């Protein structure tokens, strides 16, 4: 089945460590996104990518890094520079070509990161 | 900067009642608006996507309307069921990449 797979589902990190969250999609979507969700707030955009080997910062990119070496994959690294990394992280993708589903965003199941 | 507001933050209704969820946005120059459902600890599931040229979209018991000029969208869920209990979020797209999300309305349908 087509979809977006995020792993791990739960992750615990000690302060000062970098961690990488995986996001893989088999929907053949061009654009991929990382969002952060905190209780009582709307989703906030961390990074996005519309094409392989290219990505842009979103609203809260500080302390995060990404890569886009393959169309299917968009991993997110939460670095030790991120001051408050405990959150629920969501990966999303959407097609960019014209069509009935242009613009529709699809999400993975999320990864919950807790800093101990 | 686009601001998206969903009021109320939480709603509790008895089973069978119709649900009305509101979403308002400050900048009417949008490409589309999307409604999502989120279960606790899960990702977002797309419910309906309304393009800026459309007034409404329907899927089963769900109907979403869009009034761009007044900056409002409403999601109607007919004959609610306990399985409809979830958080419902709306998001507006006003750029090639930019989606702005509301904080959501958490719905509880009482059996």
Summarize this structure briefly.
The complex is a heterodimer of chains A (116) and B (111). With 116 residues, chain A is mainly beta.
SS-based class of chain B: mainly beta
Oligomer: heterodimer
Strand elements of chain B, count: 11
Radius of gyration of chain B, in Å, reads 13 Å
What percent strand of chain A? over 45%
Helix tally of chain A equals: 0
Order of helices and strands of chain B: EEEEEEEEEEE
User: Gap between N and C termini of chain A, in Å?
Assistant: 36 Å
- Largest sheet geometry of chain A: 7 strands, mixed
Q: Low-confidence segments of chain A, ≥5 residues, pLDDT <50?
A: none
Query: Could you estimate the helical fraction of the residues of chain B in percent?
Result: under 10%
Helix content of chain A: under 10%
Let me know the average pLDDT of chain A.
91
Q: Low-confidence parts of chain B lasting 5 or more residues at pLDDT below 50?
A: none
- Supply the number of helical segments of chain B: 0
Strand content of chain B: over 45%
Largest interface: A-B, 25 and 26 residues
Structural account:
The complex is a heterodimer of chains A (116) and B (111). Chain A is 0% helix and 47% strand. Chain A has no helices and eleven strands. Chain A has strands spanning 4-7, 10-13, 19-25, 31-37, 44-51, 54-57, 64-66, 76-78, 87-94, 106-107, 111-115. Chain A is globular and about 40 Å long. Chain B is 0% helix and 56% strand. Chain B has no helices and eleven strands. Chain B has strands at residues 4-5, 10-14, 19-25, 32-38, 44-51, 56-59, 62-67, 72-77, 86-93, 99-101, 105-110. Chain B starts with a strand and ends with a strand.
